[in-house]
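[job 0412] stage=fold_complex status=start
inputs:
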Amino acid sequence: MKARIKIRRFNPETDRKPYWAEYRLDAQPWDRVLDVLVKIKDYQDGTLTFRRSCAHGICGSDAMVINGRNRLACKVLMKDVGARVTIEPLRGLPVIKDLTVDMAPFFAKYRSIQPFLINDDPPPYTERLQSIEARARFDDTTKCILCAACTTSCPSFWANDSYVGPAAIVQAHRFIFDDRDHGAQVRLAILLDSDGVWRCRTIYNCVEACPREIDITRAIGEVKKALLLGDVE
Amino acid sequence: MTTQTSAMGKTKTGGRFELYAWFFTRATGILFLLMGAFNLIYANLTGGRGHLDVGAQMRWAFFPISSHVSSTSVEVTPNFANPFWQAYSFLLVAFAATHGFNGLRVILEDYVQHPLLLTWLRALLVGIWLFVLVAAAFLVFVLV
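[job 0412] stage=fold_complex status=done
writing structure:
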């Protein structure tokens, strides 16, 4: 297929404001958008900048706005987006160059919910065992790859970047409902803040954006319910 | 702990307020509809059927004071000097106003970044909210 790719580009050293660059090339229907970006960079314009690492939907490096929706470039096929594609950097985070955004504010929010096991019990000789049911309780939120597609699709986050954001709440959920973890009350106290879960307006953009198909709004709802009832079942 | 505070931003509203506001919105949203439905059913069962047009039905549902439906020649309007209906109408309007103004507060807190402006707008909102409550109390307890 003859592909026409429009990319929102910005180089802070030479450009005063972002502009659209257009590239035409031959692409196969089974090419991923990431393959097309690599082709452009290799054969047409070496200055095009974007992040990619594993290219298999696991590392979460190449989240970007593809045809207006937050997607991983490595998980979207050309046959699914058509021959005309527009690609922009994620919204709501500062652009460093072209499609590369500064993830530091995103990871600061991630760190704020203490994303690590909190358990002062002496570790057992083998692993900390857990029942299948207890593991299933938070299975959905373990799938998060921290690509920022959800947080940067969230209008509440665009409007007010002090909001902790869906990704951090998903990560908090993963520990709050883990029965091996004893830090639930600490995390709930953090999310009780006015910039915590209450800025979620259940818009569901995050659910639509998540490349891992996590039910993010449901997870946020469960955290709200735990705050209201004061316990984690 | 320091990273936490800096990452979570600057606005720290007191304690559990946001939790209560969120729960109040959910609870009154349902309560409001149930109270409205009760009014409609009550009015229609007690003889309002055929006398109330759609507009009057809606006014009756969400602010049941007799002056709202006086134009429809309904003779069945219960006497609103009755303290039950007075308290009921006032609560209905108070819940609705608080629910709505809390929604406006939420929008302000999302979109107004300047702290001083936000404080002024919040104060303005509280002022209008109190005015609506007082006006409703006046209508329900004094005029009717």
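[job 0412] summary: Chain B touches chain A at residues 3-4, 6-13, 15-19, 21-23, 106, 109-111, 113 (CB under 8 Å).
[job 0412] exit 0
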